[in-house]
Every structure is written in C-alpha cells, then in structure tokens.
Design brief:
By secondary structure, the protein is of the alpha+beta class. Helix content is about 20%, strand content about 35%. The strands form two sheets. Strands 3, 4, 6, 7, 9 and 10 form a six-stranded antiparallel sheet that branches. Strands 1-2-8-5 form a four-stranded antiparallel sheet, with no helix packed on it.
Length: about 210
C-alpha cells in the first residue's frame, strides 16, 4: 500500500507540476461497490464543463454501476457518463492512458455557478463516487491486496485568480478491482470441475 501511495504522489508531482484539479481517492469497498472521495485541490476553481474520469474500471456495465452523490450543488448540477471504450482526456494530460477495452466513468459539472464553494488554501470535498466492480474489494483502502490494481484517473479545473482563466489538468492513480475472481467464485469453479470429473468416472465405469 505504501508503494501505491508513493507512486500516486510521484505521478501527481511529475505529471501536473504546479497544476492541480479534482482528486479521486479510494476509501474502501462494500462487496462489489468501490467507494471514492472526490475533492477539489487548493488553487483551482470548479466551473461549468469541468470533469473527472476514472479510467479502465473492471466490471462497469453501464450507468447503473455509477453512483455520484455530490456535496457541492445538487444532483441536477452534475452528469454521469459511462464510456465502454475511450473517453475525453483533460487538458494538458498525456492521452495514452486509456485502455479502449475497459470501460470508464466520467462525472461532469454542469452548473454555471457554485455559490457554496469557495476554493482556498485547503481542498474542498465535492462528493462521493461509488462504482460497481468485477469483484468484491477490501472494506478498508489500507488493506488493498491482490484484489486491487492501480488505474488512472484524470480531471480538469481552472486555476484560481488568473485572467483569463487557465484550464489545468491532473493525472494520478487510484485503486480499483483487478480481474482476479474472489475466493468463493474460485471455489465454485473448482467444485464444478470436481463434479464433472466424478460424473466422467461414473460413465466410464458404467460402460
């Protein structure tokens, strides 16, 4: 877990430099539902059409697997998008981060104003994101194991206090489901093969 944290911190530093935007942080899972806190970095402001994308999330099947609960604005101020292949890439971000074979989830801010958000010296919580994955995850983000892999997320916002406003992007990693089946599924698969073997032996004996 420490290695994953250091990797994310290093990537944030290298990719974004002095840039900052929207950050997606894994907090733990409830079964196959993976939970994330989403926040606005210091030094940037949220404006209409700013968005963040979680790329290559194993198990997403459609919009029903994306749940966004905003703390800023109302539900109608945001939109969720399911992309079965590639998605738009935020400004100033390397586009070679998106695996077209694995779905993405994007959340976009739609409102023209956000009177209840005053970006300042500390980050601003924007909401919580829940994505339904291929397998069950750990209930504590600190307990990520073979069920977790690192996937990219990227976002964009505007640098605060600049005229004209400068669109800036950030790229980093968060935790998401791997393609390894959970133990109970592996057990069912093994049990199935054993049953097939037993039936095959019985047939041989009968003949």
């Amino acid at each position: 877990m420490l290695k994953r944290f250091l990797l994310s911190a290093l990537l944030l530093l290298c990719e974004s430099g002095a840039n900052a935007a929207i950050v997606v942080q894994f907090t733990g899972a409830s079964g196959n539902e993976w939970h994330y806190n989403v926040s606005l970095d210091p030094g940037v402001s949220l404006q209409k059409d700013n968005f963040f994308t979680v790329y290559d999330f194993n198990g997403l099947q459609g919009l029903q697997d994306i749940q966004w609960n905003p703390l800023v604005g109302s539900t109608s101020d945001w939109s969720e998008t399911f992309s079965p292949s590639t998605s738009a890439v935020p400004n100033q971000i390397n586009p070679n981060i998106d695996n077209p074979a694995i779905p993405n989830a994007t959340v976009t801010f739609l409102a023209n104003t956000i009177p209840n958000v005053i970006p300042g010296a500390s980050s601003v919580p924007l909401g919580t994101l829940t994505l339904t994955g291929l397998i069950a995850g750990p209930d504590d983000a600190q307990l990520c194991d073979q069920r977790c892999i690192d996937i990219p997320f990227a976002s964009e916002a505007f640098k605060k206090g600049e005229t004209p406003p400068t669109l800036t992007g950030v790229l980093a990693f968060t935790s998401a489901p791997s393609t390894i089946p959970e133990p109970r599924i592996v057990g069912l698969i093994v049990a199935g093969f054993v049953a097939i073997g037993v039936l095959a032996r019985r047939r041989i004996r009968i003949h």
